[in-house]
Amino acid sequence: MSDILIIDGDAAFCQSLMAELARHNLHAAHSTTLSKGLAMLHVGEFSLVLLGDEAGSKNSLEFLSTLREVPSRPEIIVMSKSRDPDAAEAAIRGGAWNFMPKPVNTQRLMVLAERALEYHRERPAKCAPVSLRREGIVGNSRLLNSCLDIVAQAASTDVNVLITGETGTGKELFARAIHANSSRSGKPFVVVDCAALPDTLVESMLFGHERGAFTSAENRSIGLVKQADGGTLFLDEVGELPLSTQKVFLRVLEGRSFRPVGGAKEITSNFRLLAATNRDLEAMVQADTFRRDLFYRLRGIRLELSPLRDLLDDLNDLICHFVRRACKQLNIDNKGFSPDFLDTLLQYEWPGNIRELVNALDQAVVRAGTEPILYPQHLSRNIRANVARLLVAELPELENRTPPLTDGEAFPSLREYREKHMAELETWYLKNLMLVSKGEITNACRLSGLSRPRLYALLKQRGVERGS
């Protein structure tokens, strides 16, 4: 049985590569089209895919997510004529094992193939199925489940984790889930709010102090780093740490030892580090406002949380969960909600993300009083006004694009209409973004304010080519 599948439009190249693999006792099959290759993956148990970029009209990088959903979960090595660094980065971010420009160095490819196959064989033992404790994380969308996969991965190691995402996306919740599923779950989970640390007391709060170390130090104090001994230290909003403290904390990370303020000897703390931020640390590194060496230390594993506007598939489950929780806290019967209540929440942009949703639902439950069903009127005027403004702004578009409906024709629901036209709007924006940025991803990210992974995902979702 073949362990390797080669997908490349050049049949002669496939045959040559199969012969080279055979000389290394590696058995391979091949396909010259993506569609046939996918069919072969669904009926075979391939451990590795060597993915070329000439197997049909579809860009091979766009095919990565499809390959990753195949039951055997093969490792993927991308072979491409492109020597664009952005293409290599996109391949790795998309889940590829490695990226090799053509013409392929066959000796190096053989080494990579053997390592990928070895990793694939060992992976089931390393990642035995476990029941993940969600710690209040709600939803089952593809985006959310991919984040939970990273939570499970992070929980199985002691590697530092950097959690990124907009304000209100639940960064601390995911940090707690990593801790709860780790071997340190029975030990302390200590939160350090870096944005709230007073400049004059940062080191004292982090590392503690001895009695008399400064004027108000009447007693000895154990710092937050020592309190996390054996457990997890969570640096929330790590981008707010002053540069001077970043330097000190870097030394602590390297040796897990430090000296309390006014102390004569160093003490140790065996903690696992998780950090979170809503800021672009890479941009801060470029601007010399965040230490490059500390940034590299923090991002052992990267977990990027999506904003709520990208998780609308989970919105119904989220509403059910938080309405039930609010009713329980108020000691009242659980409430249902009308379809137009859900449609209104689907229309809203949620700049405050999950945190804003929870607040909106708590208020709606209180406003509803003894009424058993929630309606849009129970939502705040701010949310309803923003949705109304959006709909009115889109009315001319609707009048221009939509022919009058005759009796009996189905008028689209608010959700259907918004999804259709939001997709058109995003496609238009992305095409113009690629035009203005000349397809340069770094420039496009700067102009749009999007992260690289988010931009790549949107380009793929809307079918926009970088050369548009």
UniProtKB/TrEMBL annotation:
Keywords for this protein: ATP-binding, DNA-binding, Nucleotide-binding, Transcription, Transcription regulation
Extent of the signal sequence: none
Domain Response regulatory: 3-117
Any one biological process term the GO annotation gives: regulation of DNA-templated transcription
Domain of life of the source: Bacteria
Any one GO molecular-function label of the UniProt entry: ATP binding
Gene3D superfamilies per record: 1.10.8.60, 3.40.50.2300, P-loop containing nucleotide triphosphate hydrolases
Domain Sigma-54 factor interaction: 137-366
Keyword Transmembrane applies: no
One Pfam assignment: Sigma54_activat
Record-given protein name: Two-component system, NtrC family, response regulator
Organism of origin: Desulfomicrobium apsheronum
